[in-house]
Design brief:
The protein is an alpha+beta fold. The chain is built from 16 helices and 15 strands. Helix 7 crosses helix 12. One of its GO terms (molecular function) is mRNA cap binding.
Length: about 575
């Protein structure tokens, strides 16, 4: 057996450690400092539990935290000869440096600056823009996750938007109202009804001719949107229309409505925001009405978009401010693209709502009658805004304007894309404004317009919601456009027919149809006969419906002027 020999261990009678005498061995140099060969040698210390790996800059976080206790590679307590060599060695820090250290300043050499092939997008971004962009991406991602989560929970597209201002009912539901029924939109999708060709009962009003030079506008030669302060626009509800009253007295039909109200019903499954329609059952007749200052007079913007709009009502990009802005743009656009030389086509009767000598917007009201079944006929007042003459053929036009408020929200910059990728712009609009475009198309079909002209109107600057430019005008045949946006006419009439049938079964009285602010369904309430009469006196409308100018964000006198203008247009017309 091999023996194990233990060296001599000197005994120190005076204290701890080896006695001094034992160090004076001849082959050892006394007082020499101990230096390990490698800094990472764990000689001299066994472990340092006070050190955490995360305190070390540039450390590799994949390391196990407990290992750090044994890692002395970054320890400055070993003042070694090798330390000098190490000081010349640096790890490259790949993390993005903030710019205020003055490092990484982009060098503008002239060749780079004036090279036409460099897009704007390659300009060095400022640090805060990068941070903003990252934040926006994260926001989008979060919104997407929330959406998927909601979809998975509900199985429908409920919870599409989380914008509280929008999730208010368009009308205050009073406790004494009696809810009769609620119809989920899913039942609407299966409905179909083919309606025979309607007949024109009469046409009122006067139309001006469309100015074809607007078809040639491009973003490069845009035109400013003008303002038409002295032209009156009327948003008269069904029962206040003298022509409809006359037709009802003559028993020309049993159901009466306007194109705005019908299109709201026809496109109901696409709606996200709340809306309401008042229903009068009188004798054997049915009148569909809208309240004064109703949602239906404004135009929703980004209603079907997945990107939530700002929640603050005063914000110029809140749902409410945008809808007022869109209504105002639409009215001005519809008058600007006409040849305003006094040449007007007048029809059977003058504009039924105009008083003597007042200047009226170009509009033609076609009172048309559809047969829903043997005893049910529907008369609707349909609007066309203009007329065009091609090869001695006169055709009716509807004029509407899509508006861009801030490319950040839609992700598509119209000024860049309209000339080269108009399809992409329209596709984005169809995604974000599915309901509005479908309603316009339904109205064009109801009025039997030969052409619908869509204007692309943008703000002069994303923060200026009073000044706009027209970037392009495109014409579509309503039937083709309906096919393109997947709007099915027999389904539209199926919805109207089912709602008419449902209301016809009700007792005489007053009812209101309300789109639920959060769910894809519509409810029917029975309301007292005096509901909504002089709403503005007894009970002011909820704040987000009062049609008032966004004066809170008014910027100076011009802004106020524009705001009052919106108010005149939206409110005085109601009073008329």
């Amino acid at each position: 057996m091999v023996g194990f020999e233990l060296g001599s261990v000197p005994f120190n009678s005076d204290g701890w450690g080896p006695p001094d005498s034992s160090l004076s061995v001849t082959n050892q140099i006394s007082n020499a400092p101990f230096a390990p060969f490698s800094r990472s040698d764990k000689i001299g210390r066994i472990a340092d539990w006070t050190r955490s790996i995360s305190n070390r800059p540039g450390s590799n976080s994949k390391q196990n935290p407990t290992d750090s206790a044994f890692d002395f590679s970054g320890d400055d307590s070993f003042a070694t000869l090798a330390a000098d060599e190490d000081s010349s060695f640096r790890l490259v820090d790949t993390a993005a440096k903030s710019h205020h250290h003055g490092q990484h300043r982009p060098k503008f050499n002239p060749r780079w600056r004036f090279n036409p092939h460099h897009n704007r997008s390659q300009l060095p971004q400022r640090r805060d823009e990068e941070v903003e962009a990252k934040k926006r991406e994260q926001e989008k991602e979060r919104a997407r996750r929330d959406r998927l989560y909601n979809l998975n929970r509900s199985g429908t597209n409920a919870g599409q938007r989380r914008e509280s201002a929008v999730f208010k009912s368009s009308v205050d539901i009073q406790p004494e109202w009696n809810m009769l029924d609620q119809i989920p939109f899913s039942t609407f999708s299966k409905l179909a009804f083919s309606v025979p060709e309607p007949e024109d009962l009469l046409i009122c009003g006067g139309l001006e001719f469309y100015d074809r030079s607007y078809d040639r506008i491009t973003p490069k030669n845009e035109r400013r949107l003008e303002r038409f302060k002295n032209r009156n626009f009327f948003k008269i509800t069904t029962t206040d229309d003298p022509v409809i009253r006359r037709l009802a007295n003559e028993d020309k039909a049993t159901v009466f409505a306007t194109d705005t109200i019908l299109s709201t019903l026809m496109c109901a499954p696409r709606s996200v925001y709340s809306w309401d329609i008042v229903v009068h059952r009188v004798g054997n007749k049915l009148f569909f009405d809208k309240r004064d200052g109703s949602q239906l007079d404004l135009l929703s913007v980004h209603e079907t978009s997945q990107e939530p709009l700002p929640d603050v009502k005063d914000d110029i990009n809140s749902a409410y401010s945008l809808s007022v802005e869109a209504a105002y743009i639409n009215q001005n656009f519809s008058q600007q693209v006409l040849i305003r030389d006094g040449k007007k086509l007048s029809y059977d009767e003058p504009n039924p709502f105009a008083t003597e000598g007042e200047e009226v917007a170009s509009v033609g009201y076609r009172y048309r009658r559809w047969k829903l079944d043997d005893d049910t006929f529907l008369v609707a007042r349909c609007e066309v805004q203009s007329v065009a003459e091609v090869n001695n053929q006169r055709s009716f036009l509807t004029l509407n304007a899509l508006n861009e408020f801030d490319p950040k929200y839609s992700g598509v910059d119209w000024r860049q894309k309209l000339e080269t990728q108009r399809g992409a712009v329209l596709a984005t609009e169809l995604k974000n404004n599915a309901n509005k475009l479908a309603k316009w198309t339904a109205q064009a079909l109801l009025a039997n317009a030969d052409m619908m002209k869509l204007g692309y109107v943008s703000r002069v600057h994303p923060r200026d919601h009073f000044n706009h430019v027209i970037l392009a005008v495109v014409g579509y045949k309503p039937k083709d456009f309906a096919t393109q946006i997947n709007l099915n006419t027999s389904n539209m009439w199926g919805i109207v027919k089912s709602i008419v049938d449902l209301c016809m079964k009700l007792n005489e009285g007053k009812y209101v149809l309300v789109k639920d602010p959060t769910k894809p369904q519509v409810r029917i309430y029975e309301v007292p006969p005096d509901a909504f009469e002089n709403d503005y006196v007894e009970e002011p409308l909820p704040e987000d419906e009062q049609v008032q100018p966004p004066a809170e964000d008014a910027q100076g006198p011009e802004a106020n002027a524009a705001a009052t203008e919106v108010e005149d247009k939206e409110v005085s017309t109601e009073a008329a």
